[in-house]
Amino acid sequence: MTLADVAAASGVSITTASLVLTGRARELRISEAAERRVRSTAQELGYRRNTLTTGPRAGRVQTIGFVSDTVASSGLAGDMVKGAVDAAYRRGFMLFVGESGGDPVVERALVEAMYDRRADGVVFAAMYTRVVTVPDVLYDGPAVLLNAMPATRTTVPSVVPDEVQAGRSAASVLVGAGHARGVHLIGAGPGVRDVPPNSIAATQRLLGLREVFTAAGVEVVSAHRCPKWTPEYGYEATAELLRSHRPKALVCFNDRLAFGAYQALAEAGLSVPGDVSVIGFDDHPIASWMRPRLTTIALPHHELGARAVAVLVEMLERRGRDVRPPMIHRVPMPVREGGSVARPRR
């Protein structure tokens, strides 16, 4: 498919088609109708503009594309980009970052732009772990999903945090501190389907929690599903819980929920961890400002970015060999000890 084919099918000159597809239509006063016609025709015909005209590609050019939704500008997950940059640099690659804002059209355009510029492969990232529809353009070259799982079976591998093990770790911290009764969940549960929409983290954390609690004979007294994992919902769920129970321990499904829980406990005259132990997830910056500092299971953002680049480079090195890498790569989530968990009072 050539530029001339697009021009002919659009009813414009090759020059006009070229100006539209290089983003210069407005500056040269090409009509909006003509611009729309050329762009829609190019998409229908599957035309891809090659931005480099130095001849056939020979070998690797040591560049990796990093396409994200909002991760590049997110303070919480920006370490994923830094981890990817560091890992790429150590392996002699440059990393080019593009942000889509979650717009599928922009996502596709960014991936196409990376491949058109002869990137050796693409890391396709999400700010929070979620199910994504893999853009078909990712199959044009080696690609890795970062912090995302495919909606359908695919040949594109995923790098994700090990949320099931994180749930096990959180439960083990409480069990190790002697908590056997009075445990309540804030954010999700009790069933694995009682979670916010599309929350992979909640489902998998619940699986890990239930596994360890069941093995230790710990009964979860109640669970409070929150539509959003923000402080106000953590506060409301904990305040509601305190109207009918005196908890010994709270498992909050992220640190922002735990922040809200702290406020509700304080208003009820209960201390952390003297009266109630609290544990969270993510190691959000807010955890270090809570008093006492929150014990939490950390999301390893830097390691996630670094692993995604490592997996992609391994794929590049295996090209042409009959080797099938794992489809899911889980990155451990470490425990960050604070002062919010203690042995229960008798």
TrEMBL record:
Keywords for the protein's UniProt record, in alphabetical order: DNA-binding, Repressor, Transcription, Transcription regulation
Top-level taxon of origin: Bacteria
Pfam families, per the entry: LacI, Peripla_BP_3
Domain annotation HTH lacI-type: ranges: 1-58
Coiled coil: none
InterPro entries: HTH_LacI, LacI/GalR-like_sensor, Lambda_DNA-bd_dom_sf, Peripla_BP_I
PANTHER family (UniProt xref): HTH-TYPE TRANSCRIPTIONAL REPRESSOR PURR-RELATED, LACI-RELATED TRANSCRIPTIONAL REPRESSOR
Protein name as it appears in the record: Substrate-binding domain-containing protein
